[in-house]
Amino acid sequence: MKLIKKISILMLLLTVFSCSEKENNHALLVIDMQNDFCDIDGASLPVKGGTSVISYINKLINSGKYGKVVFSQDWHPINHISFASNNGKNVYETITLEDGTQQTMWPNHCVPNTFGAEFHKDMDTSKTDYVVKKGTNPKVDSYSAFWDNNAESKTDLDDYLKKNDIKEVTIVGLALDYCVRFTCEDAVKLGYKVNLHLKGTKAVNIKPTDAETTIKALKKIGVNIIEYKKIGVNIIE
């Protein structure tokens, strides 16, 4: 009986401790974990190692720590300005748009209601509180989950977070040097405390140094970079 009582008390304490760990003012933002960005068959813009971050992100989702879990979802119409196929250009080429914006050319990706736009089947979306779609305007790209690239049109993410009294965000997903970076930068501008888990992201690395450059830039503006080291080697290497 004494052993049973001790076990019961221990389970109660664990439950209380688990509940007390939840930070209601802290949201987990999972950026664009969609098939087209994962290194799987049929992906149009696979990020090397993209699927390798899924298990880590799932652990964060299931940690019970976050008051809200939000997924962003690239959602580009087929006539999107960023698609190389719509401009007669090569993928990864940079062009100047009519409004003077520098635009990287991408393969067609994350077109609504296609396999590529769906979240990867291994992502745990069961605890998702909100999904914000971005890049829906065919005339402007939108890396950030908060704003389009011209900072003219907001998504509803900031309003959702503020409505739920979120003060701090932890960001993971794809890709580090584009959508994750821009989301981090805008989150800082909007006044959130921002954390980035390096084990929960991978870079496109059009240039081999893009990941390193991104991390340095984010540190400079105050993003808390949570590094993961194994045998002394950083996860981004």
Report on this structure:
- With 237 residues, the protein is of the alpha/beta class.
- The protein has one domain (22-234): Isochorismatase-like (Rossmann fold, 3-Layer(aba) Sandwich), CATH 3.40.50.850.
- 25% of the residues lie in helices and 22% in strands.
- It has a six-stranded parallel sheet, with helices on both faces.
- Strand 1 (23-31), helix 2 and strand 2 (66-74) form a beta-alpha-beta unit.
- The chain is globular.
- The N and C termini lie far apart (54 Å).
In short:
With 237 residues, the protein is an alpha/beta fold. It has helices spanning 2-21, 54-61, 157-163, 176-189, 210-220; strands at residues 23-31, 66-74, 94-96, 102-104, 130-134, 168-174, 193-202, 224-226, 229-230, 233-234.
Fold blueprint:
Layout: H1 2-21, E1 23-31, H2 54-61, E2 66-74, E3 94-96, E4 102-104, E5 130-134, H3 157-163, E6 168-174, H4 176-189, E7 193-202, H5 210-220, E8 224-226, E9 229-230, E10 233-234
Helix pairs in contact: 4-5
